[in-house]
Specification:
This protein is an alpha/beta fold. It folds into three domains: 32-262, 3-Layer(aba) Sandwich (Rossmann fold); 274-344 and 474-560, Orthogonal Bundle (Glutamyl-tRNA Synthetase, domain 2); 348-463, Beta Barrel (Ribosomal Protein L25, Chain P). Helices cover 25% and strands 22% of the residues. It contains 13 helices and 25 strands. The strands form six sheets. A seven-stranded mixed β-sheet has the order 10-23-24-25-21-22-11, with helices on one face. It has a seven-stranded mixed β-sheet with strand order 19-16-17-18-12-15-20, with no helix packed on it. Strands 4-5-6-7 form a four-stranded antiparallel β-sheet. Helix 8 (216-226) packs across helix 9. The protein is elongated and about 100 Å long. It starts with a helix and ends in an 11-residue tail after the last strand. Bound molecules: adenosine-5'-triphosphate (ATP) and magnesium ion (MG). Adenosine-5'-triphosphate is lined by residues 37-39, 47-48, 50-51, 234-235, 264-265, 272-275.
């Protein structure tokens, strides 16, 4: 982007401000190139979404490009399943990386040459101490480390040994390559960091070609340089790695990407780290990476979140330089706000109880008009069958209701939405349990919605489903996966998995109106007065499963134990 075009850009955070200044000063000829660099060792989560919106967002805004680069330097933990899911999730969020799909593993030859160059400059050496010995000699932030006896090995010997490492001559752990920087540096990352290690493990892309693999810190920054990334945006924990990356840029004489750190997203009642999420999957605490309780993109999608709701959330939380904790209620607010505009309303009764309308003809049936979405005129309307017996929500009836209860009780009147006003005459209970089994009402035929000639006013309006036309469905109700606000704030020897909420999933049998019988997985609805629900991919014909995306209102965090 030229600085003329950049002039009238409004910036929304400190990163955009830095980029704008770089454009104005003609740095990199005004070019803006970012990247989103996941390690393919798990599924993406909502924290990654923040980084995706940021990286793709600023590239788009300033006329640049964003690469998708897999930082795949750890073959043991990586898998093509993860690569595929990452691509699917980014596409679903609405971004296209075109033909700019890259892999750090595609640069393994170049990275090897970089390492050779460091050795030739006397800036790297082959270490023979074990990893424990290396750790023991590292010192502490206040105490300098000890130099390795192998540190002053001649360049020629280092070159020979490094090549033998590559050829598979040595066992894992017997040798590593270390950068030769400063064992007394106050920055621990500068104390001769390991940059290559032996790993006789096949890689999901390079197969058996390599016996040695670069460390993340020797691959990430160099890959940025190879791709001529102008602005390398990463989370705060990499701030202390920046001197190392800059040291490597200097001695390798490679493209100087500018690293800028921002705060990672932390959410209350949630863990956001692939390592922890993998533990939940492996330990069977959830049903896979896309379990609707998971904060993964695929979990949120299955739960019923829309890309727009996640984008709005990301916009709302913004990009800051200091770590903080975001209330998970804000995420729920974002999906509610979006679905309120876009989800069609239907009648769904979670816990049904039968109402018999005693003055309605036995075989009678009429099809009433019901509008689909009061927030969206274009959504139109549908016909809903009404008959002598309807289900209402069990909690909408009380035998002895308080004065402020504007729903049904003996002697009280309510409107059935889109239908008639009914009056409660009587009810029946189960002799053993005391549970209400049937409620008896009469209706006033002159009060039909849209054609009410009585002018009668009632305070309550209930949702309902005709018994004869009801569609039985399974509904999964979700609560927070953790009952601890910060599951990772732990005492020694405690484990975040101890704070998994045992009641985070409740499966119930419910009824919904007939009109949704052909609904497809992923379709979203508002069950009137109940919340937002999304059809689960486990559904089959005649057996719909709904996931509750969110309740209609924030019900606050339930306190447990
Ligand atoms: P995790 O701890 O979940 O494994 P990670 O940083 O190791 O996260 P990567 O695959 O390396 O995962 O991340 C890809 C990009 O996403 C990185 O640039 C990283 O900074 C960013 N990212 C990861 N987690 C968050 C988060 N919680 N908030 C914002 N950005 C994040
Ligand atoms: Mg990482």
């Amino acid at each position: 982007m030229n600085s003329e075009n950049a002039k009238n850009k409004e910036v929304h955070n400190f990163i955009e401000q830095i980029i704008l200044e770089d454009i104005r000063s003609h740095k990199n000829e005004g070019r803006v190139q970012t990247r989103f660099p996941p390690e393919p060792n798990g599924y993406l989560h909502i924290g990654h979404a923040k980084s995706i919106f940021l990286n793709f967002g600023v590239a788009e805004k300033f006329g640049g490009n964003c690469n998708l680069r897999f930082d795949d330097t750890n073959p043991e933990k990586e898998d093509v399943e993860y690569v595929d899911s990452i691509k699917e999730d980014i596409r679903w969020l609405g971004f296209d990386w075109g033909n700019r799909e890259f892999y750090a593993s595609d640069y393994f030859d170049q990275l090897f040459e970089f390492a050779v160059k460091l050795i030739q400059k006397g800036k790297a050496y082959v270490e023979e101490l074990s990893s424990d010995e290396i750790a023991a000699a590292k010192g502490t932030p206040t105490k300098p480390g000890k130099e390795s006896p192998y540190r002053s090995r001649p360049i020629e010997e280092n070159l020979k040994l490094f090549k033998l490492m590559k050829e598979g001559e040595f066992e894992e752990g017997k040798k590593v390559l270390r950068a030769k920087i400063d064992m007394a540096s106050p920055n621990m990352h500068m104390r001769d960091p390991v940059i290559y290690r032996i790993k006789k493990v096949p890689h999901h892309r390079t197969g058996n070609k390599w016996n040695i693999y670069p460390m993340y810190d020797f691959a990430h920054g160099q890959s940025d340089a190879i791709e001529q990334i102008t602005h390398s945006l990463c989370t705060l924990e990499f701030e202390s790695h920046r001197p190392l990356y800059n040291w490597l840029i200097e001695y390798l004489e490679i493209f100087p990407s500018r690293q800028i750190e921002f705060a990672r997203l932390n959410l209350t009642y949630t863990v956001l780290s692939k390592r922890n999420l993998l533990e939940l999957v492996k330990g069977g605490y959830v049903n896979g990476w896309d379990d609707p309780r998971m904060p993964t993109i695929s979990g949120l999608r299955r739960r019923g979140y829309t890309p727009a709701s996640i984008r709005n959330f990301a916009d709302r939380i913004g990009v800051a330089r200091r770590d903080g904790m975001i209330d998970v209620a804000l995420l729920e607010f974002s999906v509610r706000e979006d679905l309120n505009k876009t989800a069609n309303r239907i009648m769904g009764i979670l816990d049904p109880v039968k109402v018999v309308i005693t003055n309605y003809p036995e075989e009678g049936e009429e099809w009433l008009d019901a509008i689909n979405n009061p927030e969206d005129e274009a959504a139109g309307s549908r016909k809903m069958p009404f008959s002598r017996e309807v289900y209402i929500e069990r909690s909408d009836f009380m035998v002895d209701p308080p004065r402020k209860f504007f729903r049904l009780g003996p002697g009280r009147e309510v409107r059935l939405k889109h239908a008639y006003i009914i009056a409660c005459e009587d009810y029946n209970t189960d002799a053993a349990t005391g549970e209400i089994t049937e409620i008896y009402c009469t209706y006033d035929p002159d009060t039909k919605s849209g054609a009410d000639i009585t002018g009668k006013k009632v305070k309550g309006t209930l949702s309902w489903v005709s018994v004869r036309h009801a569609l039985p469905v399974t509904v999964r109700l979700y609560d927070k996966l953790f009952h601890k606000e910060d599951p990772l704030a732990l005492q020694k020897d405690d484990d975040f998995k101890n704070y998994v909420n045992p009641d985070s999933l409740k499966t119930i049998q419910s009824v919904v109106e007939l009109s949704v019988q052909d609904a497809k997985p992923g379709e979203r609805f508002q069950f009137l007065r109940q919340g937002y629900f999304c059809v689960d991919p486990d559904s089959s014909a005649g057996n719909l499963i709904f996931n509750r995306t969110a309740t209609l209102r924030d019900t606050g965090s339930k306190k447990h134990g």
